[in-house]
Amino acid sequence: MHETQPLLVLDLDGTLADTSRDLLPVLNRVTAKVGLPAIAIKDVGQVVGHGAKAMISRAFAFHGREADAGLIDTLFDDFLVDYEANIAAHTVLYDGVTQALDRFAANGWKLAICTNKLEHLARMLVEELGQSYRFAAITGGDTFDFRKPDPRHLIETVAMAGGSPAKAVMVGDSVTDIKTAQAAEIPVIAVDFGYSDIPVRDLAPDRVISHFDELWQAIADLPGRHGAR
User: How much is the pTM?
Assistant: First the structure.
């Protein structure tokens, strides 16, 4: 019987790629249409991981304004048009990502992405960054009828990639990723350079890394069958 390969499941925004370089300008262009001043990434925080509508709502709340659902929907549509046209204008992979993923792939690991970004946008971005060939599965916030922090999003991503939860590890940057993995009973490595507005160490991930160069050893240090070998 063929042994299931170990699987590394990664979040996208704030984990693999610094997407704020494009998300924030789009957000500010869209909300400027209704008179909102620009907002900084530190004031958007981990809402980045909840999608464009959450970011738009956060911008209104930050400036002490309310927006009804209809206005949010209209701005969301504008956001998608703008973002699709500028999805990788400035976005870059974090330092060390390609080398780390090369190492895992060379050692028999499968790779997958589990993001709350709309699936077609996730796929578009990964393609633009030249990385789509790496991933056995890419799932987004609209792939299923549920999304992170629902653990089923991660569990179904693992299944789509042909992996097993017992041999999977999650990598993310936010409370959403950490809670998802913990609920799925899958070890989780947190990066401390993403968009969390809570220090990730306070969220009790299995390990915290500050650079992708540290990922191999962090996983090797996990107990049980998850170690990188």
Answer: 0.93
